[in-house]
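Lab meeting, item 3. Inverse folding demo.
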């Protein structure tokens, strides 16, 4: 699936895995993706998230409440597995990209994929920050389709 992702899109996924490992989590989840999407290198997604009032420290604090892996097995090679929710979000990002007429998935499409499901960890973090997930999706789509906004 990652072959459809731009270099920046693949970098988001790789950095999310590094973030999960740095927090001693045994999986890469939507919260890890959200944290990486707040980094300035994520471009448009970081701008949209920050403008909406989200910040990396809030997300990091929320992720810090997730228990570290305690004897759970990692995949061969020691890398964290991708959670079902993150897999769904990445698959949704491919659909979002196609729906918007793009041939490749960039970080903004990953943000749309992460926000597609209101029951994942990232959506709960967004809600606890007082940010409306649907409004955030609308802003992201508007920023993708009209970059001059």
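The presenter then showed the designed sequence:
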């Amino acid at each position: 699936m990652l072959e459809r992702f731009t270099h920046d899109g693949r970098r988001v996924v790789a950095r999310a895995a590094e973030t999960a490992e740095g927090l001693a989590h045994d999986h890469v989840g939507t919260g890890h993706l959200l944290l990486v999407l707040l980094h300035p290198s994520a471009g448009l997604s970081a701008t949209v998230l920050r403008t909406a009032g989200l910040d990396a420290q809030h997300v990091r604090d929320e992720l810090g409440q997730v228990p570290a892996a305690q004897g759970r097995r990692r995949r061969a090679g020691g890398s964290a597995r991708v959670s079902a929710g993150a897999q769904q979000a990445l698959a949704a990002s491919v659909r979002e990209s196609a729906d918007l007429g793009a041939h490749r998935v960039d970080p903004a499409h990953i943000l749309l994929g992460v926000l597609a499901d209101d029951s994942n960890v990232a959506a709960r973090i967004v809600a606890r920050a007082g940010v409306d997930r649907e409004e955030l999706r609308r802003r992201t789509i508007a920023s993708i389709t009209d970059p001059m906004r």
